[in-house]
Predict the structure.
Amino acid sequence: MSRRSTWIAVAVAVALVIVVIVAVASAWSGLGDTGMSGAGWVALVLGVLVTLALGIGLMSLVFISSRRGFDEPGGDGR
């Protein structure tokens, strides 16, 4: 039963991703001929880089914390 429910969950997730891709593609094609200034591209690139750096940094802290034992319960049972 667990194997079957896993495949159903994967199928539903793939279907949702396909629906989102189709919706985004149709919205994108409906925009027409719009442009972005140089400042807009700089802001976009900086935003992506800062977001990636933040995500990578936070995930690194999670892994470091887990490997060094900071996530384990204390010795006095708290």
In short: The mean pLDDT is 88. The radius of gyration is 22 Å.
